Amino acid sequence: MSIRSLVTLLVVHGSLCQVVSAQPEIPGSTETEVTHAVELKPLERAGANPDPNRLEHGAVVRTATTAHGIARSETPRRGLASRVLPNDAGQVWRDYDISRYTSRCSGKEHPGRAVVDWVLRETGTDLWFTEPLGLLNVSRHTLRVYHTPEVQKAVASVVDRFLSTATESHAFAMRLITVASPGWRSQALRTMTPVTVRTPGTEAWLVSKEEAVLLLNHLRGHSGYREHGTPDLLIYNGQQETLEYRRPRQYSKSVIFRPETFSGYEMNLAEIQEGFSLQLTPLMSRDGRTVDAVIKAQVDQIEKLQEVPVDVPGPAGRPQRVVVQIPRLSGWQLHERFRWPADKVLVISRGVVATPAPVKNRRFLFKNSASVFAQSRGDALLVLECLGPVVRKDSGTGVGNARFQGRY
Q1: 166 or 326: which carries more pLDDT confidence?
Q2: Least C-beta-crowded within 10 Å: which of 26, 176, 207, 342?
Q3: Domain locations along the chain
Q4: For residue 86, is the peptide bond before it cis, meaning its omega torsion is within 30 degrees of 0?
């Protein structure tokens, strides 16, 4: 018969109270009986306190039985430890050496994360958090994967695109253009091949590089044409590059009334970062003929500051008026993945939306005045072109010079 209960003996001898916890001897066990004695305050007469477990001043005596129950209920639940990974779906473990790729991206803090991001894009995120069990981990030199052979095949295909010497790094031209009217389409659509886009209100086309030059010349002839920065980005294969311009704009948000102060009120100022952010994450195919890119754009703009007069205390008790400003905000976002031939140019239209604030750079200078904020709306275009792979040559001084194999 299995005995699991604890026998608690409460012995009162003079001023000594002992809690004796006796564990019965279990056949086959080498443990000896353990007795704990705890000195407590002396109890008063048994009849003076109807609750034998309660001392004076509200103190409670926890016997071995009650203490055992408390400890058992307060113990957190823990998972079962195991040294064996389940492989009911035939999962296998593989280590991929990515040191040849990460060594190129010496300026990146965690270059291996780009490999993980593209694996998740190719396989889907839910695949790694549902049945069957899968594991995905990356270090500076190794990508560790535990999954089915079918998934391992997809992972190996992604890793090959990173390790290919033909796709070490490429140069991309990324132009953000706004035109006042979408009427440029009337003559340009005949030379453009449409591309499927999931974002509502967004269109995309492919054009040849020769037609892209003619298209830009055609757009420059339309009213309201403006280029918001035209950088040529050198991007390591699979890595992310960001073009961002933010300009703080302060305004009077509200009035805080403070009768204890001299003026009786205080203006509450706030700030909004107006501008745009463009992110490009390209991954070339193994032969370098196809571009697979994730494009993320965000534009935030203040169309107008609506002024509202507010009465506040003035000198000699006379009221006066101050103005608070209510911003009228507008903006747009784009987060899409595109795949197109490297010898083509991708043109994306977000539709007639808020135009971003202009950018100051080495190619374009804008007047620094309040008029730069008087933006309205226009057709926002994003033009992406792969300029070709980057070839590095040693100049003899130990410093590598980079040049673009394609058009710069």
Answers
A1: 326
A2: 26
A3: 7-74, 92-163, 169-247+279-296+334-404
A4: no
